[in-house]
TrEMBL record:
This is G domain-containing protein. It comes from the Eukaryota. GO terms for biological process: immune response. Transmembrane segments: none annotated. Signal peptide: none annotated. Coiled coil: none annotated. InterPro entries: P-loop_NTPase.
Length: 267
């Protein structure tokens, strides 16, 4: 018998590739993270310069569930340095409709106890926008609010705008009654905004432009689409998922915040 040779066959199995990282090596937008305390001090010391204006009126609007009331609560908490929840927050699903039904002004009091002094900035919360023309706040009412024609406590009517004959219509608004800054909130965690909603936003933004009102657009709920942002808000502009969500959509070019009850991280 001849010598038998056993050939050893070695199979090389390629190791599985690691899953892609959720973060970029470098941020896709540059942010200076070092001046939070300075910004808060500027807000605390701010005084309107326009004649007849005692406070800066900020109107916050956006789709149902975008976080309008949570933003107001968080701004209140940030300014006074302790938990404050002046605006009711809806913890249910956005498809159940707007939680806010009335036009309400939120003032931020300085100090505690009997102190009656307030910061010179107020926030107005309104009913949320919805795609259906017969549901949600009407664009006409937002325009009237910007011009100062809507009185405190007005309950929004989803079927018809505020009439000049209504007791909540302000025929002679003072400079203090008018909106000075318009803030649009959009949730980054919602399905793509549809055409009817975009048309409503466009109409409101054009009205604000014509009235000379400065505008800010802000994306909310950023920690819900990327767990790395949940761990550290400074990862916001390192996140691949947020970058993908922002590119080529209505969210492109806007700023983002992580905003929950009692928590505010604005970047």
């Amino acid at each position: 018998m001849g010598n038998s040779q056993t050939k050893e066959v070695i199979k090389y199995v390629e190791a599985p590739k690691p899953p892609p990282t959720p973060m970029f090596d470098k941020p896709w937008r540059t942010i200076d993270w070092g001046h939070n305390s300075g910004l808060l001090e500027e807000l605390k010391e701010y005084k309107p310069e326009a004649e007849g204006v005692e406070h800066l009126r900020v109107l916050v609007y956006g789709p149902v569930g975008a976080g309008k009331s949570s933003l107001i609560n968080s701004m209140n908490t940030a300014l006074i340095g302790r938990m404050a929840i002046p605006a009711g927050v809806n913890n249910t699903q956005a498809d159940e409709g707007s939680f806010t039904l009335q036009y309400k002004t939120h003032r931020i009091r300085k100090g505690r106890g009997s102190s009656r002094s307030y910061f010179p900035i107020v926030f107005n919360d309104i009913m949320g926008l919805e795609s259906d023309q017969s549901v949600g706040v009407r664009t006409e009412d937002i325009k009237l609010a910007m011009m100062g024609h809507v009185k405190e406590g007005y309950k929004f009517n989803q079927l018809s705008p505020l009439s000049p004959s209504d007791k909540y219509y302000n025929p002679n608004p003072r400079p203090d009654d008018k909106v000075h800054v318009l803030v649009l909130l959009l949730s980054t965690n919602c399905p793509e905004t549809n055409s009817p909603m975009i048309q409503k936003m466009k109409e409101i933004r054009q009205a604000a432009r014509d009235l000379g009102i400065p505008q800010i657009a802000v994306g909310t709920h950023i920690d819900e689409i990327c767990d790395q942002i949940e761990k550290d808000v400074k990862n916001v502009y390192m996140s691949k998922s947020l970058k993908k969500k922002s590119t080529g959509t209505i969210l492109s070019g806007i700023r983002y915040i992580r905003c929950r009850i009692g928590v505010l991280s604005i970047r």
